[in-house]
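User: Sequence in, structure out. Go.
Assistant: Echoing your sequence, followed by the structure tokens.
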Amino acid sequence: MEEKKISANYERGLWKDVFLSLKENKLAMICAVILLIVILMAVFAPLCPYDPDKQDLMNKLLQPGKDHWFGTDELGRDYFTRTLYGGRISLSVGFLSMIMSTTIGTIIGTVSGYVGGKTDAFLMRFTDVFMSVPSFLLMVVINALFPPKVWSMIIILGLFEWCQIARITRAETLTLKERDYVLAAKHLGANHKQIIFKHIIPNMSSSIIVAGSLAVANAILTESALSFMGLGVQLPKASWGTMLQGAQTYIMDNPTLAVFPGIFIVLTVFSFNILGDALRNALEPKMIK
């Protein structure tokens, strides 16, 4: 009876583990609230009374006030509205590129670990080549060659951020393919595709979720850096990186132009990183003592 009672205490669902981990980690809970607020502000940005691209040169470079909460930029555009629309693009690039990189990394890592042999050696050397290349420099070169649009940013970031995920999923697959339920599935006639997608990938979903949360933060930071250099999202569209690029000319006269998008970048990236650590603690295997 006592053994059954102890076992029952550790039978937790995925979301219950996450909730309990956030509840115990106050900083992670704060970061989750911050992310929720940032995402909701970006989603409901069209409710703002100002057009993010409408210019009003008579009211340029205004300080924050009741009419313009974040002031106005060098062309008289409402800076609060542009910050929210910038969040829509930055978050969209981060999430979509994360989905792409996670998909590529999971498939390559799982196939590599499951098949093994020459296939494993080839895929891992291919991954090593990608990891050895300075990805940021290569992204700069590719962005300079192709039209710098939002979709091209998503594709480029997705193609260069999958290597770590492939390494993680390969290591997990090497362990999972020797488990009893996988061996039983093989003896019952399940094909390789069914074993990979029904047994192996679902059982390493926690590692994939953690890697994906960290990939979002990295993608947002990279997109902001490329846009700041003029190689990412192009004007008149706003992203947090392009707003920082425009603010550098007026940094001494009106530093708030750099402060507001900078704060949003820092809070968003920091929150994703803290939540990634919290998810890792919540989703790691529980040892019954």
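User: And one key feature?
Assistant: Residues 1-11 have pLDDT under 50 and may be disordered.
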